[in-house]
Design a protein that fits this description.
This protein is of the alpha+beta class. It is about 20% helix and about 30% strand. The strands form three sheets. A four-stranded antiparallel β-sheet has the order 4-5-6-7, with no helix packed on it. Strands 1-8 form a two-stranded parallel ribbon. A two-stranded antiparallel sheet has the order 2-3.
Length: about 130
């Protein structure tokens, strides 16, 4: 965890996890970017990338050269509504508690980690004409 800005929390973080089966999962996030754009998650594979814009529920299939091959928007489950339904009428949770162990171990590691360090390097912003 790092902090690019003079704050008490992290604004830039990276995690590398080894999954069962030997696959590596890498995630990097920042709230310190010079420009704001819609947040997304990329799943990168040998044959291209799936990109999920999780605020708009759009999924793109991107070829290895960076060209968007296909795009679609999907309906999502609102998790608070799902939780309330599960408590009230005993509907199944969208994500069962038994399936959240890895996520909870990551959250625990973040909470118990030392305070974020100030990055040893910084990028100089340049003005565009």
């Amino acid at each position: 965890m790092f902090r690019a800005n003079d704050i008490e929390a992290d604004d830039t973080s990276a995690v590398i996890m080894m999954l069962a089966g030997g696959h590596r999962l890498t995630t990097a996030v920042t709230l310190a970017a010079a420009h704001t754009r819609d947040p997304y998650v990329d799943v990168v594979g040998d044959r291209g990338t799936l990109r999920l814009f999780y605020k708009t529920d759009e999924v793109q299939l991107i070829a290895s050269g960076g060209v968007v091959i296909d795009s679609d928007t999907y309906e999502t489950t609102h998790l608070i509504d799902n939780l309330l339904d599960a408590r009230g009428v005993h509907a199944p949770l969208a994500s069962a508690l038994a399936e959240t162990g890895a996520f909870m171990r990551l959250v625990d590691a973040v909470v118990s980690a030392p305070m974020p360090r100030r990055r040893a390097y910084c990028f100089r912003r340049t003005r565009r004409s």
